[in-house]
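Predict structure. Chain length: 232.
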Amino acid sequence: MYTVLDVYDIRQILVDELRDKNFVTDKSGVATIEIVNAAFNANEDAIFGTPNQDYIERELKWYRSMSRNVNDIPGGTPEIWKMVADKNGMINSNYGWCIYSEENGYQFSKVVDELVKSPLSRRATMIYTRPSMHVDYNKNGMSDFMCTNVVQYYIRKGKLHASVYMRSNDAIFGYKNDWAWQRYVQQEVLQGINGKCNTVYDIGDLYWNVSSLHVYERHFKLVEEWADENGY
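Prediction complete.
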């Protein structure tokens, strides 16, 4: 039997990295703490801080719209999206476009159909990024190299599990918003499968795999506050 880390374990590791001053300088020149090759059960919707449910709902609506223009985000465009978009507001990382659109292969529908046809399949994957990202990320002045690589869905012991694979993930804002999206899609896949077959499956685990899970210097205080509040 092997041990799987969870969100609490990830918090402890990040606290230790901060205390040991194991800083990594980001491309923008700011200090970060980082876990390389992080792999854990994403059993909580936040690592540090509290999810902004209002923004999460607005982002979900935008993803569902499949618009790749940040000016279409309901309720106003966050600064971070403006910073990475081109002068017209275009980006790569509308995740709804990645999985729902005809242009990107109707991947959501194909995953549902694959698991209905073969419940133990290992082929039910949604591929977010693409080889052309090496040049697409800065087209027309944007700066958006997609963070999510692929998500795999699989049924084991009557439950639908999902494994998320990312190249990079901010452990504060990024994780909370990405977690909300990935759990939402996992539940949608489950509904799609249950609506097409005779077996009723349950929701399973959401696993997080990130090459670089990091906290920026401006959020170090959140890490310190958690350690103080929890006596760690």
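Summary: The domain at 7-229 is CATH 3.30.572.10 (Thymidylate Synthase; Chain A).
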